[in-house]
Amino acid sequence: MSDAAPDAEPAAEDDLGAEPIWPATRTGVLRDAAGVGLATGAYGLSFGAISSAAGLSVLQTCVLSLVMFTGGSQFAMVGVIGGGGAAMTGAATAIMLGVRNAFYAVRMASILDVGGWRRPVAAQLTIDESTAMAVARTTVRSSRLAFWATGASVYVFWNLATLIGALSAHALSNPRVLGLDAAAPAAFLALMSPRLRSREPWIVALTAAVVALVSVPFVPTGVPVLFAAGVAVIAGLRPAPDTGRRNSPRTSPGGSPERGSG
Amino acid sequence: MWLAIALGCVGCFALKLVGYSLPRRVIEQPVVKHIAELLPVALLTALIATQTFTTGHHLQLDARAAGLLAAAIAVRFKAPFLVVVAVACVVTALVRLLA
User: Fold this and answer.
1) Which of A145, A237, A254, B46 would disulfide-bridge A228, Cβ 3.0–4.6 Å?
2) CA A125/CA A102 separation, integer angstroms
3) A4 burial type by CB count under 10 A (0-12 exposed, 13-18 middle, 19+ buried)
4) Is B27 in Cβ contact with A70 (below 8 Å)?
5) Has residue A257 got a pLDDT over 90?
């Protein structure tokens, strides 16, 4: 009981290389998944409302959440449309912003090892949140559980919230009053912080932020984030600095294959 | 509108699927792994930056920055995920109320 300490560290990022007892880990993973689902659900409310305000019907709004299912792309799409842009421009922006999911999928493919009917399901659930929660884990087993649990949880809450938000667009027409527009950046920050363990990701993160902000006035909505992806690609083409120290002090052989970052 | 929605949905799903369908030896390349590890960091930071400090095509410093700062402090003190998000929302809403 005492060594399980389920309340201490929900993300358990601190015990790299030393996985706690599985039931405790599983409990932590599932609780985090529910937490992330609830948090993105709160954001889904604002997506539903903003999409309605942009002129999309409730059905169109819900189809975006059910089928497109990638928050950044959805916000970009309705943002472009709401800002007076063409629907096709919105779709193009959404797709450009969705490029990152292809790279998340590459990352998850090596962890999940899925084929058959599970592959398209895994593909659909491959988003910021599920990937971040999975790669924050230190073993394949807990990574897989984190991916599926977080993906399913976000899918359910995101779609429920979208529907509620779209239906109650008038009541929630200004989610800024509740500070909901700060929810996503905070969530991204919490998800990303465990990755900032060495100098390289810090440099990449700061460069990406500067590149994105500087380009915002000059390029279509959504593109700055793609420029940031370019930063990661350029940095990634360089040889990894001090490979031995990059992940954790203890890179035991075979202990954490998905973090073995060669 | 429906056509745009359909194209956007198909495009986004195709991107997700192609990542799973690349040959394994492509995925196993050290360079690909290195890039794939750095990408979430770069993209999440860019999303944080653009969603916090811009409105439309303008840079803007407003209550969201206070919310993000509060979230960063919460992260620093290892607050649970939901607390981090809630702190950001509450601080942002309060600053907006007081401003």
Assistant:
1) B46
2) 12
3) middle
4) no
5) no
Q: Which secondary-structure segment (H or E) carries B54?
A: strand B54-55
Residues whose CB falls within 8 Å of the CB of residue A145, separated by 6 or more in sequence, listed in order: A26, A29, A30
- Give the pLDDT of residue A160: 96
Question: Rounded distance, CA A186 to CA B94, Å?
Answer: 16
Predicted TM-score (pTM) of the model is 0.63
Q: Determine contact, residues A234/B80, Cβ cutoff 8 Å.
A: no
Closest-CA distance, B17 to chain A, in angstroms, reads: 5
- Do residues B10 and A70 make contact, with C-beta atoms less than 8 angstroms apart? no
Q: Three-state SS for A138?
A: coil
Query: For residue A163, how many C-alpha atoms fall within 13 Å in the half-sphere facing its CB?
Result: 7
Residues of chain A in contact with residue B53, where contact means CB-CB under 8 angstroms, are 213
For testing the chain A interface, which of B3, B37, B61 should be mutated: the one with the most A CBs within 10 Å? B37
**Chain A residues within an 8 Å CB radius of B15:** 95, 98-99, 101-102, 105
CA angle A25, A112, A97 (to 5 degrees): 105
ipTM: 0.84
β-pair partners for B54: B59
Residues A41 and A61: beta-carbon distance below 8 Å? no
H helices, E strands: number in chain B: 5, 2
Task: Dump pLDDT digits (tens) for A114-136.
Answer: 889 999 999 999 998 899 899 88
Cβ atoms within 10 Å of A250's Cβ, excluding its own: 11
Q: A126 CA to chain B: closest CA distance, Å?
A: 7
